Fold Galactokinase.
Amino acid sequence: MDIEFVRSRFIKHFDGTTGSVYASPGRINLIGEHTDYNGGFVFPGAVDKGMVAEIKANGTDKVRAYSIDLKDYVEFGLNEEDAPRASWARYIFGVCREIIKRGGKIGGFNTAFAGDVPLGAGMSSSAALESTYAFALNEIFNCGLDKFELAKIGQATEHNYCGVNCGIMDQFASVFGKAGSLIRLDCRSLEYQYFPFNPEGYKLVLLDSVVKHELASSAYNKRRESCERAVAAIQKNHPHVEFLRDATMDWLKEVKNEISAEDYMRAEYVIEEIQRVLDVCDALEIGDYETVGKKMYETHHGMSKLYEVSCEELDFLNDIAKKCGVTGSRVMGGGFGGCTINLVKEDKYDAFIEEATKTYKEKFGRNPKVYDVVISDGSRKLC
């Protein structure tokens, strides 16, 4: 995202002076889907696409905000009853309110922002927006909040002001991202560890199916309930098991006849997926990207056949990746549409993109969108 472009819009819409410019990225998740609510691990990284905002305290108790992409201007106060109607402005308002709830003293400010995180591609543009403002306002108004609290502020904004009951992975990756590294986040303890991700000779590319099937929210709840039933059955033999993260396949097999075949399949996927995250971390420590790719394919198979959250379009893109010799490919995110994430050797990249685009268009009548991503730094001040 061009800093000078954001600055020019800021100068035009406000008093002709400049403020400070901050940025936060979107994210990918290399592996570890539907593991978060099962007490397991996720493995995200920040990407080279995100949000950029210019911000300057204005000495009032009013926020004056301009969305460059939407060409929309909103003004609002900092009290609970001042919540703006515009959905994009509620993210900024929510961050302000969550900082205030934590004892931060912030005043009014002028701001203009823009982003290049593709909407609907599962790269978390909303988390990038929240993290940008949490990081910036914490610094500008000397609130003294640590990075963990900034990530929690973004999550609480989603919960309390935007009606989305999300986990913390998106905001965590946006705030804590580091170029050349992925982050293994323990969703139970919130302990985290960086692992090297420098795939020389490979590219990381998302193929957006440009579909979103409407099953997602009800299907998500059903799968969560399946996991909880499996845990309840296992607990009878192993009382210390709190999440599927604590269970083994042997313990699941002990209760195979006590739960439905569907619940068994869901739990099998989750237990195996939690182990796959650990296996990928081990592989990255020795630079073994072939094993990383193999585990990605295993995840796709599990999400498609056991957890049943894939769809025809995503399975098609995964099959094309296999046929083209792509090292690793899987559905990224909750499923039922969105993107596949693909680890591709550079010498196979052009042929893969050409074949995937052509055959997908022939089959589904639309082109997939292609997003190359590079693992990059998290929230930061640019100037």
